[in-house]
Amino acid sequence: MIFSSVEFLLFFAFVLAIFWGTLGRLREPASFRPQHLFLLLASYYFYMSWNAVLILLIVLSTLVDYLLGARIHASTCLRRRRTLLILSLVINLGLLALFKYANFFIDNTNAVLGMFSLRVPFVVDIILPVGISFFTFQSMSYTIDIYRRELQPARSFTDFALFVSFFPQLVAGPIVRASQFLPQLDRPRRPGDIDIDRGLNYLLLGLVKKVLISDWLSTIADPLFANPLEYNGLGVWMGVIAYTLQIYCDFSGYSDMAIGTAALLGYRLPDNFNMPYLSRNISEFWSRWHISLSTWLRDYLYIPLGGNRFGHLLTLRNLLVVMFLGGLWHGAQGTFVAWGCAHGLALVVHKEFRRRFPLDQSRRLSPAGIALGWLGTMIFVCATWVLFRAPSFETARILLAKMAFLDNSGSSPASPVLALCLVIVVLSHLAGVRMFGGGGAGFPPVRLPFRAFGYAVVALVLLLLAPSGARPFIYFQF
Amino acid sequence: MNRPTHPLPQFAALVAIAAPLLLGLCLAIDRTFLGDPDAAGILAAERHLFRDVATAHDLLDRMIERDEVTWDPTNGVRIGRVLANLKRSDGPKLLLVGSSQLLVVRDDRSHAGIPRRVDKVLDDRLAGRATVYNLSLGGMTLAEKQWVVEQAVRLVEFDYIVVGMTLWDSVSDEVRPWLARPRDPLPGSPLTGRPAIAWPAPAAINRTLTGRFSRSLEERVPFFRHRTAIQRWLKGEAERALGRDGRTDMAPDSPAPRPVERSGAEPVHYAYSQPEQASILARIDAFISTLQTIRSSMGARIMVLLTPFRQDAGRPVYLPPAFFERFRDTVERACRRGDILFLDASSLLGRRHFGTYLDGPDAGKIDVLHFDAAGHGELAGAIEGSALFHPALRAAG
Questions:
Q1: Span A260-292, pLDDT tens digits
Q2: Which of A425, B38, B290, B296 is the most buried (most CB within 10 A)?
Q3: What residues of chain B lie within 8 A of the CB of A227, using their CB?
Q4: CB–CB contact B29 A447 (8 Å)
Q5: Distance CA A279, CA A273 (A)
Q6: In the A/B pair of chains, how many CB contacts fall below 8 A?
């Protein structure tokens, strides 16, 4: 069920009607929350609309972490607590490995065994459950936080299950921490918790990004990656820039819709993007792109590995390890790993550069310096999106060679209209910064009639310009 | 601004203003559209299944909505989705699998040419006797044909299977990554005449409700009935304003054939080295024995079809010149051994049915593989008149 589909519109209208109907009417005992149970059932229905059987996977993951979380919390023996945590991690990562990475490991093992004319005699014929990387990470953070004594266990199984499977962010994030969400379940939602402005603004902003921008840009980017040989250097650059904008609008559009949907139910989800394409260096990019994943990796991987506490070389190693695993998180494919490693290397180079040439905080960067930093960052980000999107290393190699104008065969779909469209998207990104500020939180206040007028016009534009059929979000595959 | 205590009044106020406004704007646009001289033509075109769609994926969505998935407009990129949504049909079914020759109508590559394609013509000719499914994909290798046939027969009990072969597409046994690892999950358990996964009550409920809602909206508000026509009209107007011709064709992904080797002379020809020849011939037996297994297990009548290509005296398409004969004889023998029907349509079509490549690396050269709509009609006739439907023909030799 895709947020930009009629199917979701009907589902959400039903959920909203029931949920708002209960606002302020229920006297709920602390032990039982009908609101939470209703949202949990709605969330399971949402997931089962994609695959009815694989809901069992979420239920299993939820049960395991709920029970282990309670035991970790109750135990005072450090050894036992550690054993229980390891058990939780093994089960969660085991499920992830089985469903997402089994064939990747088998293929790579075969590549090595192939040198000796051997091969693994089977493949694992299973499908990748939508959103598995998201809900597994979310669930794992719960037991880790309890182990660290940074979090109290959920008050009930329903609460915890709702945290794991809350439908607005179930299949593509943002990855919400238990410490951000569980406190919101301490009491039933009341009328004052519903932020209609925030909800509708985010929902429509996300729809515009997804339906009006991302889906149309895909018609430029998709043919490029399907037939890379047909494009020359300029054509490849246009296609790659289109994909760069597409993936941002697609993913941040989903996050916006998730935040908006949750806000209409009275819950607050964290922002996931903060104008990443304005970054002036790669470190800044990672503080603005997929914030919930990068902070998750920082808190649950980078810092436990030692972070920057054990010397410069180990810090660089930790960065590389984190980005390697970050790449692998996106998918069981060598190109994702290469993408993560390329970003890891860039972070290492940037850190090393900053160590040797520390920034003088008292001086402002010159406009030329800022522009140069931004341009370098964007060229790198665009080039590495090729690795991220290309179906194989061979396709990526062809595209990167053409981007470097080492091979200029083929033609270009370049037209003034296409170029104008790309420029408009870039400018609207910049305009968005001025209008919405940090992460889109600060929408300007507008009086109700004008807002209603605005919503009607946006809805009309969506109806007129949306391509037919709802397209899946790119991040669903992760 | 004071926030109401309950969100409903504020929401209701927003809806009370926005909904009539939206409706009014929709009606105004609909009226403007209907007042345009082009509207009648666009609406007439709209009634066609393949009305203006931006991409092959959109077309697939539309075909699924209408339970009309009998071919793959995405050239295998969404094969899992195609297989999961194959048209439900209770009567006899015919599966056609081959490469781009069975998909491309040379003289009309736009959507308008699809009804004149071999599978559609055959479907018309067989009306009532069989529903035709064409799971051919551009550039399909033997291994890919085998993969698609095996997947398809897991899902639907086909009564007839026709596998198109040429020498050109028998040279490689690669399976393209999007087929080997489909991006959409492949449906699982076998069923008769319906998509394999009858899942999800939730998905079925959603589909029903969404269908009813959309239909009801389209019935009550003309704007929604004309929405895609209006989109097309606006696009045409915009393109006219920008000085373009306003024509919008849908182009399914069907890559032009990649010659193994070509000389500078016309027409394009394909040359095979000795090891390539040996490997092609060796592959045939294994392929036919797979078909034999399918025939034995499900009782379908299976026929191998050598698809037409342009044959000019003294200018062989396949080199060395005698190799095609060896290839044909090997296929025919293997079919006979495996009790598979065989139809050699390689010389069915005359030169007039073929044309030249309009673009790509072979622009200007004669395309010896893809034929025009009339050729598709003749091929459909040949299949209909073959031993597949007339067992007596086979008995007569």
A1: 999 999 899 988 888 888 888 999 999 989 999
A2: A425
A3: 255
A4: no
A5: 12
A6: 129
Residues A3 and A11 sit within 8 Å (Cβ to Cβ): no
Using DSSP bridges, classify how beta strands B341-344 and B301-306 pair: parallel, antiparallel or unpaired: parallel
Give residues 180 to 239 of B whose Cβ lies within 8 Å of A: 181, 183, 185-186, 199-203, 206-207, 209-210, 213-214, 223, 227-228, 230-231, 234
Work out the widest C-alpha separation in chain B, in whole angstroms: 90
Task: Round to whole Å and give the CA distance between B213 and A133.
Answer: 34
- Assess contact for B178 and A391: CB atoms under 8 A: yes
Angle (deg, nearest 10), helices A233-264 and A393-403: 120
Whether residue B359 is predicted with pLDDT greater than 70 in this model: the reply is: no
Residue with tokens 């007339």: B390
Q: Is the ipTM of this complex over 0.85?
A: no
Helix (H) or strand (E) segment spanning residue A435:
helix A416-436
Given a cut of 70, the residues of chain A with pLDDT beneath it are 24-32, 121-128, 226, 361-362, 410, 412-422, 425-445, 467-478
**Residues B17, A449: C-beta atoms closer than 8 Å:** yes
Dihedral over alpha carbons B298, B299, B300, B303 (to 10 degrees): 120
Cα gap B8→A463, rounded to integer Å: 25
Q: Which of A271, A269, A273, A270 is nearest to A245 (CA)?
A: A273
**Confidence at residue B55, expressed as pLDDT on a 0 to 100 scale:** 66
Of B214, B198, B357, B147, nearest to A469 by C-alpha is B214
**Closest chain A residue to the Cα of B1, Cα to Cα:** A447
CA distances from B54 to A167, A233, A240, A357, A413 (A): 30, 25, 20, 51, 16
Other C-beta atoms closer than 10 Å to the C-beta of A413 total 16
| Residue A23 to residue B26, Cβ atoms within 8 A | no
Radius of gyration of chain B (CA): 25
Neighbours of A113 (CB within 10 A): 13
pTM above 0.80, yes or no: no
Q: Please, which residues 52-71 of chain A have a Cβ atom closer than 8 Å to chain B?
A: 52-53
Q: Which of A1, A227, A469 sits opposite B206 (nearest CB)?
A: A1
B196, pLDDT greater than 50: no
Nearest to B8 among A20, A52, A452 (CB): A20
**CA torsion angle for A83, A135, A174, A199 (degrees, to 10)?**
-130
Q: Which of B13, B21, B53 sits opposite A448 (nearest CB)?
A: B13
pLDDT at B343: 93
pLDDT, one tens digit per residue, over B202-247 is: 877 777 777 778 778 877 888 887 887 788 788 777 777 766 544 3
Instruction: Give the amino acid at A411.
Output: S
Chain A CB contacts of B13 under 8 Å are: 448, 452
For residue A367, say if its preceding peptide bond is cis, omega within 30 degrees of 0.
Answer: no
Residue B189, pLDDT score: 40
Contact A20/B14, CB-based, under 8 Å?
no
Nearest CA in chain B to A477: B183
